[in-house]
Design goal:
about 120 residues
């Protein structure tokens, strides 16, 4: 029987992350704004599917996965890691400038140096 404990609540946690990253009463239109291609593309329902596809393609590259394994806590809570990524992307895309800067300072992408695995 498959272990489903790590994926428990995937939809609920992802939806909550999206909702927490979507601002209410934003102070400005953020870095992109409602007329931008970024908002139009990110608001499309195909975006989550494209995002999952990107993660699957990344998982095929051994060096990318070595970096993820060495510098991420995804193996302890993969659903939480996905939810945090969704919240970050939503805040930076749709949030006002203050919220986007705060999210980036809290833990956006940064330069990571990893050792290549030796098989």
């Amino acid at each position: 029987m498959a272990d489903t404990t790590s994926s428990a609540g995937l939809i609920e946690r992802s939806a909550a992350a999206f909702a927490s990253g979507t601002p209410e009463g934003a102070g400005d239109d953020g870095f992109f704004g409602p007329a931008s291609v970024t908002w139009r593309m990110s608001a499309d329902l195909a975006s989550p599917v494209a995002g999952l596809r990107s993660l699957l393609l990344q998982a095929l590259h051994p060096l990318a996965m070595a970096g993820v394994d060495q510098h991420s806590g995804w193996h302890r809570d993969p659903v939480g890691r996905l939810a945090a990524t969704i919240a970050y992307l939503t805040t930076v895309t749709f949030g006002d400038r203050t919220a986007a800067r705060h999210a980036a300072a809290r833990g956006g992408a940064s330069m990571i140096m990893s050792a290549a695995p030796t098989w």
